[in-house]
Amino acid sequence: MRSKLPDSKLSIFAVMSKLAAEYGALNLSQGFPDFDTDPALIQLVTEAMQAGHNQYAPLAGNLRLREKIAALVQELRGKYYDPESEITLTVGASEALYVAITAFVHRDDEVIVLKPAYDTYEPTILVQGGVPVPVQLEAPYTTINWDAVAAAITPKTRMLIINNPHNPSGMIFQKADLERLEALVRGTDILILSDEVYEHIVFDNQQHQSVVSVPGLAERSLITASFGKTFHTTGWKIGYCLAPKALMHEFRNVHQNTVFCVHHPTQVALATYLEESRHYLDLAAFYQRKRDVFIEAIADSRFQFTPSAGTYFQVLDYSAITEEPAPEFAERLTKENGLASIPVSVFNVDGKDDQLLRFCFAKEEKTLLKAAAILNSI
């Protein structure tokens, strides 16, 4: 049998979570909260089920929810997307990413990916016969070398994928980054796939800079978002995609032949939940408190760091402790010290190792303080 992904391995998230379970370690590896979802949202889903919203939703998603998303984006980003033709609900942002790549990337098309990168981008490109073109960022991944991005663009470049706020580094794009990106793709047919699942989790009074706010980018961009990340319900797998009408038409052609539609009662519940803006506007402060608890607790440790600017991840530099490769140190930290993390090198070109580990701080304070105690003991 000939595999389409012969080099595919078990996800590092699955590997580290399994290791954490085997050794009874605190799991700050995989990006999921250890605290409860808002009971009010769970109640809304229950009510939607009891009210009979248990059959197929429309292909594009519940219209009332699409209207709420349109209002949210216009309020926060200053751009209107037509709920009828420019917004589609998806099975998490993962399906949105898969569908966007599948709809537009043809055999031998090149897709630029900024590394370190979320590990589903490149396999999806390969499945479509495309060619991933990685551009390696330099540690600690707080800036983008746009000259290197420009050098990677060729006549075969079909798409450029960005992730903002950036996982795993916690970097956020500045307005100047988007302006430079707009200049690079001006006059080309290059599409932008903008993974913005952590859009509401930006710290230190900074603002999320979305491609929707730059007209020259918005007209060629597909933007993915995640209610799972926003409302601490990663297991619900519900997200959405924004795109201009012509791009969304092609997106929906693939979406309808992939899953057709998304869990209906959850959509009905979210439409009501979004009526209260504090549910998303308060997220930045909520997660910044967690970030601050974590980094203040490890301030005197031997780990070095730049505070995360967004997402719910913090990268720590362990170069003052050991010269071990990141995968080996992450494994030893789990087995011997009882704390699981993600080695950032697995997301880099050729496993480029900058001796960095990623920790998820979307946890209860007691969990973070336990993790900090372990780190301080090393």
From TrEMBL:
Its cofactor is pyridoxal 5'-phosphate. Keywords: Aminotransferase, Pyridoxal phosphate, Transferase. SUPFAM superfamilies: PLP-dependent transferases (SSF53383). One of its GO terms (cellular component) is cytoplasm. GO terms for molecular function: kynurenine-oxoglutarate transaminase activity; pyridoxal phosphate binding. The keyword Repressor does not apply. Residues 26-372 form the Aminotransferase class I/classII large domain. Belongs to the class-I pyridoxal-phosphate-dependent aminotransferase family. This is Methionine aminotransferase. It comes from Leeuwenhoekiella aestuarii. The lineage of its organism: Bacteria, Pseudomonadati, Bacteroidota, Flavobacteriia, Flavobacteriales.
